[in-house]
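Entry 14. Ran structure prediction on the chain below.
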Amino acid sequence: MRAFRTTTPTTERAAAGPARTAASAAVLGAVVLGAVLLAGCGSDGQPGPGGAGRPAATASPSPTPSAGSVTPGAPGTGPAPGPPASGPASGSPPGPAAAETLLRVSRTGGYAGRTHTLIVKGDGSWARLDGRARPEGAGRLAPAGLEALRGALREADLPRLPRVAMSDRPVFDGFVYAFVHAGTEVTCDQSSLTPGLSRVLDRLPPFEPPP
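Output, structure tokens:
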């Protein structure tokens, strides 16, 4: 009885060894086969384009449209609109010469020997300066007065007058006038004033401020 109990466990362990080895080999083979099958399939379980054993190709991202490209059929696309057509700004003065100097007249002499200057703009605004170009007054001609001054300047026709006209016998304590209009300057004393220049002076504000 003792000899039988001693040999039975040894025989069982010897018989179980090959069985365990065969089971391990079967499990290892299944794992390897599963890995091969998974490698040959794409992310959705289907075989990749290169067949089994190749990874599925990665889709490249769509190119980003460059700035300025136009996608056909896309709403709101098209060539950029050009600049708006230029035109006269609303509220602008009537004519480009409105802010330019229409006439400048300086008067020198008299009992005090002072100089005063009147500057009239194209829109009728005027300014009076003293001999040191300091402001002495300002205002604006009425539309009718401005038109009368323009008419007097046309009649005076400064370009046809002598640039300097002084009488042989100047008036004692008389005045000397210097007219500048449309790029033409005419200087004369009060004895040499033409009728046209006299009418221009009549259309101007006073050369001296009121007392």
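Residues 1-16, 41-62, 65-76, 83-96 have pLDDT under 50 and may be disordered. Will compare against last week's run tomorrow.
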